[in-house]
């Protein structure tokens, strides 16, 4: 460690870059000077469809379609007759709203048209907007990209919004809403503030190390702050896979001997007949996968061939694939009818099916079994207990979005936090105060990039391409 090795002022270190990217810097939306428009609600017939605009020509477009001299009061709905500005043909009687910038979603002047949701009405209004000078159809994600470019959303909040739109389970919705509310961004901002303070202490020592007015423990405080931040980053990185599983889905494999009821359990959990059920052993000969909402968590559920020595080449291949699925899964294995685990380090939930065949006097003498659950796929008895057990297991491997610190849901988050942690390691090993200060700048830059971009246009394109047109 470099403590005490440098006591002379190091003003040459001032030449090292101290700048960091500001929120939303370098992320201007493509064609941001134009006014865009798009259908923001779903396609097809519906009661109400929402068409929105964003850009400097939003006000003239609203006046043009309503033939009104004055715009409606800001953020207040008004009923207006919409007409084609070129032909004067009435299009619909609709609610219109006016959102002057910067108090709008994108930070620009925006207008919304809440029209009846028939395809002809929507098409007519879109064609009318296309005829207004200065307007063009929006690209996918362009409204959100403009909101990011104008500092209305941080990059992590943008990702949370995308996850919220695509959320299919309760756990995904809760996690996405927490990220959209800015929890991850605020946490990274606090970490960046810690680094800024530590960097200020180091640079003060570089410049004024011989000044009697400088507090003696200034470097110790910087070291303590870095040490605490290293521990926090390490804890989040150890849990990184949990957030990614929650976003993309955990992998649950149902494995066990033939005719134990594996396919019946798949049908019971998915609430649809996705697997063929037959009294003949070896019915399933391949790995069948289906996405399901399991106890509020997203799950890729796999039905596999019965684990035995297959009587034919096809079944033998199915057994091989079943074993391979168990080797590469990242969450929970449910074994049907097995009496002991195979010693694997994977999380194992032992389920004994066909409890309806047990006598009323009880199961009778049996060998010692590891912790297990009883279930009847025929009657559904024991299903609630199994779902609760799965919920607890999935909360462990995916994280509970209702409690604890915000999760890292994307590989990009993990990359920048790992880069920050690596830079802090270089700070601890530096034997030169100038290099130590630069390591702190690199660490802070990673946190800034996580929430504020600062990357290439290609990275931003990847983030926004998953948005639909109109959002």
Largest sheet: 6 strands, mixed
Overall CATH architecture of the largest domain: Up-down Bundle
Corresponding CATH superfamily of the largest domain:
tRNA modification GTPase MnmE domain 2
Give the terminus-to-terminus CA distance: 50 Å
CATH topology of the largest domain: Four Helix Bundle (Hemerythrin (Met), subunit A)
Supply the CATH class of the largest domain. Mainly Alpha
Q: Give the C-alpha Rg.
A: 30 Å
In the sheet with the most strands, the strands line up as 3-4-5-2-1-6
Q: Could you estimate the helical fraction of the residues in percent? A: 40-55%
Give me the count of strands: 12
Number of domains: 3
Query: H/E series, N to C?
Result: EEHEEEHEHHHHHHEHEEHEEEHHHH
User: What structural category characterises the helix and strand content?
Assistant: alpha/beta
Describe this structure in words.
The protein is α/β, with parallel strands linked by helices and 471 residues long. It has three domains: 1-29 and 154-239 and 403-471, tRNA modification GTPase MnmE domain 2 (Four Helix Bundle (Hemerythrin (Met), subunit A), Up-down Bundle); 35-138, Gyrase A, domain 2, CATH 3.30.1360; 248-398, Rossmann fold, CATH 3.40.50. 42% of the residues lie in helices and 15% in strands. It has 14 helices and twelve strands. α6 (183-208) packs antiparallel against α7 and α7 (218-238) packs antiparallel against α12. It is flat and about 85 Å long. The protein starts with 34 loop residues before the first strand and ends in a 7-residue tail after the last helix.
């Amino acid at each position: 460690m470099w403590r005490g090795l440098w006591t002379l002022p190091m003003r040459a270190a001032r030449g090292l870059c101290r700048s960091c990217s500001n929120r939303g810097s370098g992320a201007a939306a493509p064609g941001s000077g134009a006014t865009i428009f798009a259908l923001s609600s779903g396609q097809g017939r519906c009661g109400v469809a929402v068409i929105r605009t964003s850009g400097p020509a939003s006000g003239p477009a609203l006046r043009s379609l309503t033939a009104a001299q004055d715009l409606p009061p800001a953020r207040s709905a008004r009923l207006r007759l919409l007409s084609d500005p070129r032909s004067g043909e009435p299009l619909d009687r609709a609610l219109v709203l006016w959102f002057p910038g910067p108090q709008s979603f994108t930070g620009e002047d925006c207008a919304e048209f809440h029209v009846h949701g028939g395809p002809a009405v929507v098409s007519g209004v879109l064609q009318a907007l296309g005829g207004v000078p200065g307007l063009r159809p929006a690209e996918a994600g362009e409204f959100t990209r403009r909101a990011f470019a104008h500092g209305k959303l941080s990059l992590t909040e943008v990702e949370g919004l995308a996850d919220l739109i695509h959320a299919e389970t309760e756990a995904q919705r809760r996690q996405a809403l927490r990220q959209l509310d800015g929890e991850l961004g605020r946490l990274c901002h606090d970490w960046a503030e810690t680094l800024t303070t530590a960097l200020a202490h180091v640079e003060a020592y570089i410049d004024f190390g011989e000044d009697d007015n400088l507090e003696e423990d200034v470097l110790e405080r910087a070291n303590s702050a870095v040490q605490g931040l290293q521990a926090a980053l390490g804890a989040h990185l150890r849990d990184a896979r949990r957030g990614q599983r929650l976003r993309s889905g955990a992998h649950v494999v149902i494995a066990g001997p033939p005719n134990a009821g594996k396919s019946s359990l798949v049908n019971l959990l998915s609430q649809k007949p996705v697997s063929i059920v037959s009294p003949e052993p070896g019915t399933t000969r391949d790995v069948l996968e289906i996405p399901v909402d399991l106890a509020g968590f997203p799950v890729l559920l796999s039905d596999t061939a019965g684990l035995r020595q297959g009587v034919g080449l096809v079944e033998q291949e199915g057994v091989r694939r079943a074993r391979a699925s168990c080797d590469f899964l990242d969450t929970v294995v449910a074994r049907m009818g097995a009496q002991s685990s195979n010693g694997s380090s994977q999380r194992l939930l032992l389920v004994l099916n066909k409890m309806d065949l047990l006598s009323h006097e009880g199961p009778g003498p049996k060998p010692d079994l590891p912790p297990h659950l009883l279930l009847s796929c025929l009657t559904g008895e024991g299903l609630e207990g199994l779902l609760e057990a799965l919920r607890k297991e999935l909360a462990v491997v995916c994280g509970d979005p209702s409690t604890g610190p915000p999760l890292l849901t994307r590989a990009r988050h993990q990359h920048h936090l790992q880069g920050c942690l690596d830079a802090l390691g270089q700070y601890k090993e530096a034997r030169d105060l100038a290099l130590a200060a630069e390591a702190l700048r690199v660490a802070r830059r990673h946190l800034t990039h996580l929430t504020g971009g600062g990357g290439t246009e290609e990275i931003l394109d990847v983030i926004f391409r998953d948005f639909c047109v109109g959002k």
